[in-house]
Each structure stands twice: as structure tokens, then as C-alpha cells.
Amino acid sequence: MLKANLIREARRHEHEFTPTDNGGSRWSVNGNNGCIARVNFPAPALVSHIDSETELFDHVLGLAGESLDRLFASVYYLRPVAEFREEVVTTLPQAEAAKLIELCQTTSAPRVSFETAPTTARTPRD
Asked: Which residues are within 8 A (CB) of 5 and not within 5 positions of it... i.e. 6 or more apart?
């Protein structure tokens, strides 16, 4: 319940988010005792595969065009290649690249972490 409340509160402070290295964002709040709570909102994850029987598959085929084999591993479904986002950006025009990346992403749940404040050692009194 505490984590859900922190996530809800973080969403109210989106203007205070800081970007993370992997394209997500983070909201941090300091407690009155020096502890820190962080709510991480990961960047959207790529879908693991694209079923050839779906409308999404048709959109992906249209956007990827002749670059399909370079951008996807074709098994019984399409699986984005390693470094997919980078490959798409260098392979396709900007508008198509952005659309294709968006089609191939799925949302990731926020994660909450805590950092405790350093403690000071107490010496026993005589």
C-alpha cells in the first residue's frame, strides 16, 4: 500500500521527474530523517514478439518495409533484434522510425526503492 501511494504521489509531481540512463524517469523524495524514496518509471519495453495474425503485424510490415529482415528476427513471429531502437533510428526515416518503435513497445510498471540515511554510531554512556 505504501508503494502504491508513493507511485500515485509521484505521478502528481511529473514536472519533478529526472531522466534515467535507459530512457525512463525517476522521482525522488527525501524523508525528514535523511532517508530517500525513489519511484522509477522505466522506459517502455519492447514487445517480445509480434503475432503475424494481428493488425499490428501489418502496420509493422508497412513501416519497416525492405528493412524488415534487418530489424526483426523472423521465426513464427517477429522478434526485435538486439539494439532494435538504435537500428531503427539509423535505418528508417525519422517519422517511420518513431512510429515503428512506438508500435513495438509495451508499458513497464513503476518500481519503488528506498535509501536509508547513514546512521551515527552511539557510544555507551558511563
From this structure: none
